Amino acid sequence: MTTAILLSACGTTYSLPGVTDDVTSRADTMFAQAKAAPARQLASPQVGEKRFRRVAHRIEPVARQFCEKELAQKKTVDCNVRLELDRKMQERNAYFTYAEAGNKSPVIRFSVPILQDAESDDEVAFILGHEYGHLIGQHIVKQQQQAMAGAIILGALAAYSNAQAASAGAYYDPNDVSRSMELGAAVGQIAFSQTYELESDMLGTRIAAAAGYDPVKGAGFFARDEAARSKTGQLSFWGTHPADSKRIAVVIATMEEIKAKKSLARKQTQ
After folding, report:
1. pTM of the predicted model, to two decimals?
2. Strands in the chain per DSSP E
């Protein structure tokens, strides 16, 4: 229980929109249609890169303003994200990270193959907005906190158990503490990973819509069914952003809130 309480303190910031049966049905239909669609005709690298620059030009100022508004109380957070192409990556991928230690110099990178695979500006805009969502939701920072909390908690429990065993003259494993800390860190790091993705979908929807794109059409890219890893063993976009109709439902529900002029709802615990 203590573990759950400490890890939940690093959970999501916002409440996800309510998903009705109608929204779920629409999402399931959209997901099925995307999975049944024929293979895409890849665009040239030049076309993909041109699309990236065009979309980034519109999304960046909207996302930066959105970030600065939402994280106004956190003066140390840098909302000036570098948008880059990862020309070395052969997998279809896009990701948010920090270029410098200490969670400094935020950057979002797209591989050229994922841009070749995108069929519209809406898709690229939604993916870009989604990656900004990871910054605004402070997901990397929270995962680091969760990993540390998990390691400390399980490590302490293992140490206590070993001390009890030693005092009773029973056998104990001297490597148990380090293994428990590694396990705790792993468990903590993946805690809330699915809800982080959904939170980023919600935030990305609002960013893309504010920039004039159609996030529902853009979210069709997430419905693609593809292996999580490439033949070389590298993670693809679907390894870190798994395809799921639930994700499309969150996008549709968020658009319903936008049309109804409902603001983001922060959790009371935040």
Report:
1. 0.77
2. 82-86, 94-100, 104-111
Neighbours of 182 (CB within 10 A): 14
Contacts of residue 27, Cβ cutoff 8 Å, sequence gap at least 6: 245, 246, 248, 249, 251, 252
Contact 150, 186 (CB under 8 A): yes
Residue 9: name the closest of 169, 179, 188, 220 by CA.
188
From first to last of its 270 residues, what are the pLDDT tens digits of the chain? 444 444 444 577 899 999 999 999 999 999 888 888 888 889 999 999 999 999 999 999 999 999 999 997 777 789 999 999 999 998 888 999 888 888 889 999 999 999 999 999 999 999 999 999 999 998 887 766 555 544 444 444 444 454 454 455 544 445 443 443 343 333 334 444 778 889 999 999 999 999 999 999 999 888 776 654 555 555 456 556 667 888 899 999 999 999 999 999 998 654
**Sign of the alpha-carbon torsion through 213, 106, 61, 114:** negative
Write down the residue that tokens 């936008």 correspond to.
258
Q: Does residue 37 sit in helix, strand or coil?
A: coil
| CA max distance for the chain | 71
DSSP 215-261: HHHHGGGGG----SB-TTS-B-HHHHS---HHHHHHHHHHHHHHHTT
